[in-house]
Specification:
Layout lengths: L1 H19 L4 H20 L6 H23 L6 H12 L4 H24 L10 H12 L2 H11 L11 H27 L3 H19 L1
């Protein structure tokens, strides 16, 4: 449980200067913090069958994000989808919603399969963690409205202008569910790779899919 507490503390520390300067990186930083707080609340309430796996996954996933941000701002190379997202943020070429979607795509589609494969798709007894992976979809659905409202209030008043009521929320939810399903399939390919060639193919498929979504 302490893993996710430490993740939230680092997210808050990283968000503060971004928010203070209205850096476009603040958009996803805020959204990711709110999602992680929600994951913690869900884990604390017994929402997930395997709390230990979920909190470990959360920590590994967040560390990938922290490392990517640090690498980019140090002038290093990052995956294609992240390059698109972070260059757009640096250029201030997107709306708040555009920054949100580009960063969400990069972190989910490029990073999440690797995090899942690292932590493991099954428990020691062979039970799949897929039900816990799917269970979080409903929690995500409940976050879009409050997070979008907060982004609009703090950073970009146009953030929630594309509002078509329940239809709008359903559309966002459908996109995210589709991405999260693809994430699991890509993670399976990583986890079952038996040769360097298979591993390289799985990794390339992930990076190209994420880059395509970014485009």
């Amino acid at each position: 449980p302490q893993c996710i507490v430490e993740v939230i503390a680092e997210m808050e520390q990283r968000l503060a200067p971004l928010a203070e300067s209205c850096d476009h990186d603040a958009i996803f930083s805020l959204a990711y913090l709110r999602v992680t707080e929600n994951v913690k609340a869900a884990a604390d309430s017994g929402y997930f069958a395997d709390r230990t796996w979920l909190t470990q996954l959360d920590a590994v996933f967040a560390e990938m994000y922290f490392d990517t941000m640090d690498t980019w701002h140090a002038g290093g190379e990052v995956p294609k989808a992240w390059r698109t997202a972070l260059q757009a943020a640096d250029d201030r070429s997107m709306t708040g919603l555009g920054d949100f979607m580009l960063n969400m795509n990069a972190h989910i589609n490029n990073d999440f399969p690797h995090a899942l494969a690292t932590v493991g798709l099954t428990a020691a007894d062979g039970t799949s963690h897929k039900p816990d992976h799917n269970a979080y979809n409903q929690r995500l659905d409940s976050l879009y409205v409050p997070v979008f409202d907060e982004e609009a209030e703090r950073f970009d008043p146009t953030f929630d202008d594309l509002d078509a009521g329940p239809l709008d929320d359903a559309t966002v939810g459908t996109i995210m569910r589709g991405w999260r399903e693809m994430v699991w399939r890509h993670a399976e390919n990583l986890a079952t790779a038996r040769t360097p060639a298979q591993q390289a193919f799985a990794e390339r498929a992930i990076e190209e899919y994420a880059a395509g979504q970014a485009a």
